[in-house]
Amino acid sequence: MNQTRSWLRSWRLVLLMVILFASGALAATLAIRTRTAVPGWSDRTPPREPQHIPLSVIKSRFSNAQTGLQREDYLMLARHLLEGWSLYRTPDGARAHYPGLPSVAGRPADGLEGYARILPLAAVMLARGEDPELQPGLPLSQALREGLIRGTRAQDTASWGDIRPHSPQYVEAADIALGLWIAREALWEPLSLEHRAQVVQWFSGAMKHAPYDGNWTLFPLLVHRSLQALGVDVSRFDARMQTHWERLLHLYQGRGWFYDPPHGFDYYNAWGIHNGLYWLRRIDPDFGGDFVPQAQGDFAGFLRHLIGPRGHPPIGRSTCYRMALPAPLLGSLHVAPGAISAGQALRALDLTWGWFVEHGALSAGAITAGLCGADAALQPHYSGPASCLWSTRSLVIALDLDHRTDLLDGVREPLPVETQSFLLRHPVTGWVVRGEPASGRIALYPHDLVPDEDAPAPKPALREPTPLSRLQEWLLQRPKRPDNLPALYRRTRYSTDDDIARRCEPGP
User: Fold this and answer.
1) pLDDT tens digit string along 234-252?
2) DSSP-derived 3-state class of residue 401
3) What 3-state DSSP class applies to 133?
4) Is residue 350 included in any domain, yes or no?
């Protein structure tokens, strides 16, 4: 009996210690999460597929990219993505919470991206006269205006918050301002004077704070020029905008290329800087004088060598913006006429969207976060579920040009890799590009050195998420995805058939 009692006391002591340990571990976990968790980490949106224009229809249409797409194909794509946005928009209209892995900025900022990054596409469709009802009695234009009013109202529960230096709002303000200018008749003019003043007050944060060097410099410039073109007096910011412009010019290295800190030369020159220059030139035809046409023409003349039937060599960060790469080719048709042919710009648009749609770039009414499908190894911590909507930038420019020039009905012309072999050295970036028409393969050597093609796969290797990183995410409730900047910048060779590109297995 005494032995039994002793045994029970021992087990009770062990059980008590286990409970105390578990309680301490739980308390420690909660304490850590209080300090490290990003807002809304556990709130995830289930995927929903558009029904009016399902993904199967888009894939069927874009399977014809090799023989040439048509205007209606791109309009259907835009409608599909806008239907996707309607599935994820919040009832107040100020955000859209897409399915996918969150960013380090948290759910409210990710939701703001869901509003801002679809807005230029929605705006260009509105400018074309399309204003579909998202639900009975709620047209697209009204939904966007309601979201704008709620988001810019300081004391509103849906408020986007003030624009601060280097904040997510600073970035997204540019797309919102641009969207208001593109669809000014549908979005800006119906606003009351009170609401216009409220919106302008929110935008003022983007003009009074300094941006990061590089492509961020264009964000306040786009806000400033968009508001100015809408009739808003922003003259008190003119001198500051001139300083931003001069700083961007200081980063210009020649032949169309800007050094974009902190990583230097990459595709942000295309889908960031030259995309912004196109829109600044559209808003203000005299913006940048003779410099902008010369720079964009030079850039387009080189960039067309990097796009072909199998996509493009996947170098650099923000891989999921990949369908935006043809944006400056299209933009040059307006900014620098004659730099390249409209047929080549359209061919680049067709092949880029066709290749990536076929290989999983669309899912659940959204753009996937990866080179093809969703891919945590290629989704940096700053990218959230809606970040990749910047992929639509080439589509937005194409639809904008088509609305004024019937561009999308034009004849397609072969790209350089489809006509002849080439080995092209760029004197500013140090990039060497090799094209092989027989295979459609494009290889990029970013360090002015063409290594032995039979050499082993370039290093460093792409890192994958690990059980430890997933455990860290669970514990800290913040992104701990692998840092793959070394693999995306430091290799001696990138190509359309390397190990990164081979992640593009056909989607379901």
Assistant:
1) 999 999 999 999 999 999 9
2) helix
3) strand
4) yes
If asked whether residues 164 and 136 sit together in one domain, one would say: yes
- Asked if residue 115 belongs to a domain, the reply is yes
Task: Considering only CA atoms, give the Rg of the chain.
Answer: 25
**Do 309 and 456 belong together in one domain?**
no
Can you read off the two tokens belonging to residue 117? Answer: 């990054």
Q: What pTM did the predictor assign?
A: 0.93
Predicted pLDDT of residue 505: 63
- Within-domain flag for 508: no
CA 354 to CA 71: how far, in whole Å? 14
Number of domains within the chain: 3
Which of the listed residues 388, 408, 425 is the one where a domain comes to its end? 425
- Cα separation of the two ends of the chain: 67
Please report whether residue 164 resides in a domain: yes
Strands 366-367 and 362-363: antiparallel
The DSSP secondary structure of 257-311, one letter per residue, reads EE-BTTTBSSTHIIIIIIHHHHHHHHHSTTTTTTHHHHHHHHHHHHHGGG-BTTB
* Residue 45 sits in the same domain as residue 177: yes
Cβ neighbours of residue 67 closer than 8 Å, sequence gap 6 or more: none
Which CB contacts under 8 angstroms, 24+ apart, belong to 132-140?
132/79, 132/82, 134/86, 134/89, 135/86, 140/82, 140/86
Handedness of CA 363, 365, 368, 369 (dihedral sign): negative
* Segment 400-413, tens digit of pLDDT: 999 999 999 999 99
| Same domain flag for 413 and 296 | yes
Does the pLDDT value for residue 30 go beyond 60? Answer: no
| DSSP labels, 134-166 | EETTEEHHHHHHHHHHHHH-TTSTT------TT
Q: Treating both helix axes as pointing N-terminal to C-terminal, what angle do 71-88 and 55-62 enclose, rounded to 10 degrees? A: 150
Place of tokens 């990536």: 356
Angle 262-352-105 from CA coordinates, rounded to 5°: 40
302 Cβ contact list (under 8 Å, min separation 6): 255, 256, 424, 426
| pLDDT, tens only, 145-169 | 999 999 999 999 999 999 999 999 9
Q: Which domain holds residue 10?
A: 1-36
Closest listed residue to residue 82, CA positions, set 393, 366, 401? 366
CATH number at residue 73: 1.50.10.10
